[in-house]
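Progress report, Aim 2. The chain analyzed during this reporting quarter is listed below.
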Amino acid sequence: MRITDFLDIRAVEANLGASQKPGVIRELVGLFLRIEPSLDPNAIVDILTRREKLQSTGVGNGIAIPHGRTDAVDRIIAVAGRSVSGVDFESLDGEPTHLFFALLVPESEQGSHLKCLARLSRLLKEQTTRTALMNASTSDVMYQIVSTQDAELELG
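Predicted structure tokens for the chain:
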């Protein structure tokens, strides 16, 4: 499974404008709507917010991976966003979060989302990848970095 199997180039945003966690979640939901316009944005905000209340998905190193399950999707879909200034996302390391990768997973998928989370974590643990994403000039460049680095995971 590759990240580009569930991340569409149209769902990448290099300039998230929100300065607080709820605003970032709403912006990420807006990215989901680019791919699945039939989604109920309020329901998706609720799904992601409920998951955040269990434990922050801010995993540290400037990364958050909000995710949730819903019958509103029939396949795993992901979105990605970057906040250059950073957001307090209640990250485990207490540092600002800059890179956001959010997942929506069908209720029927029992283990696939764990594989997706693991794949994203493996990609984003590399400082060079995080730095490249932070320095990307556009959303398209961010997508290309993810695609290239993800392909290299296959080879490594």
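DSSP finds five helices and six strands in the chain. The chain has one domain: 3-155. These observations will guide the mutagenesis work planned for the next reporting period.
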